[in-house]
Every structure is written in structure tokens, then in C-alpha cells.
Amino acid sequence: MVTDQKHSSDSTYSKQEVIRYTKKLAQIFRLNEQNAEVYTALSGENRALKKQLEDYHFQHNTLERKVKRLEKDVKSLETELEDLNECIDRKAVVNSIHEIVPLLIGKKDKKFEDIADLFPNIVHLNLYNSAEFSDKTLNRIAESYPNLKYLNLEEYDDGLITDKGLYVVINSCHKLEYLSISSYKEFSEIAIWNVIHSCPRI
């Protein structure tokens, strides 16, 4: 009788152990499944990041090669410019332009439009004894050359340049250091005063 009770107790204990063991195995399996899912997801992200890194590395190498080619081209251009500078006398070119511009100004102001387009950065303009021009010419000079420093309008007095044309020039060309207009008798004292006031460098 005692033996049967002991056997029954041992059997119950063994069943409980099996149940606990089974539950633990189930938990372990679930954890393993979860770990497997996480590992799969992380592996996918890792592969994607690795692919992006490879793409960035390829792009970097491509850009680096392009930069090297550009640097080589820039050096080549610098060499060509140095050679060009040795062949050109800048002072002679500037002097030639100063001589050519007055000759290009014909008897009609319309021709000055072509001159302004050809020589957009003139700071020295000598129209001494040039062909006729008028207030319209001075308007175009003011519009085209706001950085003008030298302007010689001597030896031409045909009444086509008035205070109005002079006002336009001095109100635009504030950097003027030299302005020759002594041959013009029609300019008023007010116009002369405005020249002095607007162009203090003269």
C-alpha cells in the first residue's frame, strides 16, 4: 500500500517536471524564432548598408577622378594663359583701344551703341577732336561706363552738347578724375558747379 502511494507520487512529480521542461522548451523555441527573425532583419539591413557603402565608394572614386582631370585642365589653361600673356603687350592693347574708340564714333550717335558693346569696361575715353556727337552720346556713355575715370570732350563745339548731357554723365560717372570741357562755352555756371559737387575726385 505504501509502495503504491510512493509510486503514484513519483509519477505525479515526473509529469510536472515534463510539463515544466516542455514549457521551457517552448519558450526557448519562441525565443529562437524571434532571434531568427531579428537576425534576418538585421542581416537584410546590413546588406543594404553594405551596398550603399559600396555605391558611395564608387561615386567617391568617380568624383576624385573627375576632380583630378579638372585640375589637370586648369593647370593646362593656366600654362596657356601665361604663354598668351607673354605674347600680348597689355599696355599696347589698351592704348590701341583708346585710339580706336574715338575713330569709331561717327557722325551719328547710333554708332556708339556698337562701340559700347565691343568695349564694355572702358575707364579712359578720349574724344578729343572727334566727329560730332550730342547729348544722346553722353547718355550712352553714362549708361555704358559708370566706372569712367577720364573723359576728354575738347575741340568739338557744335552746340549739340548741353547742360542736360553733362548732368547725365556726372550723375552716373562718380569716379571721374579728369573731365575736359573747357572749349564748351554754352555750359552754365550751375552745370559746372554740379560737376565739382558730384565728382569730387576731379
Structural overview:
The chain has 202 residues and is mainly α. The protein has 2 domains: 88 residues; 109 residues. 69% of the residues lie in helices and 4% in strands. The chain has 6 helices and 3 strands; from the N terminus they run αααβαβαβα. The chain has a 3-stranded parallel beta sheet. β2, α5 and β3 form a beta-alpha-beta unit. α4 runs parallel beside α5 and α5 packs parallel to α6. It is rod-shaped, with a radius of gyration of 46 Å. The model has no long low-confidence stretch (mean pLDDT 74).
Primary descriptors:
202 residues, 3 strands
Task: Furnish the topology, listing elements before pairings.
Blueprint (H helix, E strand, L loop, with lengths): L1 H86 L2 H15 L6 H8 L5 E3 L8 H10 L5 E3 L10 H10 L5 E3 L8 H10 L4
Parallel strand pairs: 1-2, 2-3
Helix pairs in contact: 4-5, 5-6
InterPro entries: Leu-rich_rpt_Cys-con_subtyp, LRR_dom_sf
Protein name: F-box domain-containing protein
Keywords: Coiled coil
